[in-house]
Design a protein that fits this description.
Elements lengths: L2 E7 L5 H12 L3 E7 L26 H8 L4 E4 L6 H6 L5 E4 L9 H6 L3 E4 L5 H16 L2 H9 L21 E5 L3 H13 L2 E5 L7 H5 L3 E2 L2 H7 L2 E4 L13 H6 L4 E5 L8 H10 L2 E6 L19 E3 L8 H19 L9
Parallel strand pairs: 1-2, 1-3, 3-4, 4-5, 6-7, 6-9, 7-8, 9-10, 10-11, 11-12
Helix pairs in contact: 1-12, 5-7
Length: 346
């Protein structure tokens, strides 16, 4: 029996990569066809209030376009397509959806359950990308790579960046506080151990790996971690319980001259309080890859500060991330075709 798979990719998670991976995993048992949405050249929808799309976020396209493309398919693989009640109702043949991201925020999970559709995702696809990016961004901020780049682009040659009171410390001389000890947090800790850094971890839902205990990584309460860390790195998921978890009180608890790094999610941080901490001199600097509102408003005060390294939510952007997603999605398809349960059911 031959099955049909509809692949709705984009210009990062390209459909042809997924078609190839599914072909490698399933052979001729699955007939694939793909199309690509224009993200990231066009922004995703972040809101929750679109009519008929209540609760969905970070999606692109319309339910009608999904139905038109996927009609007659047993399987649907996507990164950003919106899947709401109307999609599942109009696609009675659909049996499994694989979302090539860490969480199916663009899927109405209750509607999928009502229609008996399995939803799987691809956790861990960008683990190495985010962890490596975080290391690189920290070096860029603490060693004045950002400042040096900015000044030369403006025609300035800043000899003062070699002053003792301006230069930064090397990684082995810094204490790192890691908030969030999931797969990305663990990978980041691995890298910092290799650099010889002192590492503290806060995560009330996880225990240290034996190898990290042997390496003298310490698990602390949040306030203690903030007091002891030269660099505080956010690597946790955002939930209803931790929105704004780093705010005025937390900045007050941090070491004088510390650096905050957020390569996780913007809502974790009170950015007004961060601005105050950066302009008052409480913090020496910050690295921000994510923001509460994206795309970032051009008048955001943080964009004007000289002591911040800023990037447009690209920590997970690598060819390896897309290839990992395709491989993981293909394995979920192979398992379903073979009558096996999903590895990563949502």
């Amino acid at each position: 029996m031959k099955f049909k798979a509809a692949i709705i990719g984009d210009r990062f998670m390209r459909s042809d990569i997924f078609v190839e991976a599914i072909g490698m995993a399933c052979g001729e048992r699955v007939e694939c066809r793909g199309t690509d949405l224009p993200w990231p050249d066009e922004p995703v929808v972040h809101g929750y209030a679109e009519k008929g799309l209540d609760g969905l976020k970070e999606y692109l396209g319309t339910p009608e376009s999904v139905v038109e493309f996927a009609k007659g398919s047993d399987m649907l693989v996507t990164h950003l397509a919106p899947l709401n009640e109307s999609v599942f109702a109009a696609l009675p043949e659909l049996k499994i959806v694989v979302v090539s991201r860490g969480g199916p925020v663009n899927v109405d999970m209750a509607a999928a359950a009502r229609h008996g559709v399995i939803v799987a995702n691809t956790p861990g696809r960008n683990t190495t990308a985010v962890a490596q990016f975080t290391v690189g961004a920290i070096i860029a901020e603490t060693r004045n790579i950002t400042r040096g780049h900015d000044c030369l682009r403006k025609g300035e040659y800043r000899n003062d960046l070699y002053r003792f009171d301006t230069v930064g410390k090397e990684l082995q001389d810094l204490n790192f506080g890691v908030i969030g000890y999931g797969v990305i947090g663990k990978k980041f800790v691995d890298y910092m151990i290799a650099f010889g850094a002192e590492i503290f971890v806060f995560d009330p839902f996880a225990e240290l790996l034996p190898a990290h205990r042997i390496a003298d990584v310490k698990q602390l309460e949040l306030n203690e971690l903030l007091k002891k860390s030269d660099v505080v790195t956010l690597l946790c998921r955002v939930t209803a319980d931790n929105v704004g978890m780093i705010g005025e009180d937390e900045f007050a608890a941090m070491k004088q001259g510390a650096t905050l790094v957020n390569t996780a999610r913007g809502p974790l941080v009170d950015y007004d309080a961060l601005y105050a901490a950066l302009t008052s001199g409480k913090l020496k600097g910050a690295v921000l890859d994510t923001f509460a509102v994206e795309p970032v408003p051009p008048n955001l005060p943080l964009l004007k500060l000289p002591n911040v390294t800023l990037t447009p939510h690209i920590a997970g952007a690598s060819t390896t991330t897309a290839e990992n997603s395709a491989r993981l999605a293909a394995e979920e398809i192979r398992r379903w075709v073979g009558g096996e349960p999903p590895l990563s059911a949502c």
